[in-house]
Design a protein that fits this description.
Oligomer: single chain
Shape: globular
Structural class: alpha/beta
CATH class of one domain: Alpha Beta
Order of helices and strands: HHEHEHE
Strand content: 5-15%
CATH architecture of one domain: 3-Layer(aba) Sandwich
Helix content: 25-40%
Radius of gyration: 13 Å
Largest sheet: 3 strands, parallel
Low-confidence stretches: 10-24
Number of strands: 3
Strand order of the largest sheet: 2-1-3
């Protein structure tokens, strides 16, 4: 499987001020669109979403589950994130912390 490294940043000041999870679907949908356009099949894959925010982490996890991925949500307190990420076919870094995910 090819390694696809891209960044999606579709959150604006209007969205970040909202408390509604549904407001963030466009950003999360951008992550799914990026996978689709990159030729990544989602169904049946193990996906790890790093970040559990209502803004991006949870909505993108729900969208991945709608596409039949097995989803694990990890965060800063997850034990051995590196091992969790190694098992994944798809990794979405939806965390507001620089270098939370590092390459090999």
């Amino acid at each position: 499987m090819p390694v696809v490294r891209n960044e999606v940043n579709l959150i604006d000041s209007y969205q970040s001020g909202s408390i509604s999870t549904m407001t963030y679907v466009p950003c999360s949908q951008g992550c799914i669109e990026l996978l689709d356009r990159s030729g990544v099949s989602i169904e049946g894959k193990e996906a790890v979403v790093i970040g559990r925010s209502n803004m991006v982490g949870i909505p993108v996890a729900l969208l991945l589950m709608q596409r039949n991925a097995t989803v694990t949500i990890a965060h800063s307190r997850t034990k051995d994130i590196a091992e969790t990420v190694r098992r994944a076919d798809i990794v979405v870094a939806a965390v507001g912390r620089a270098e939370m995910v590092k390459g090999r």
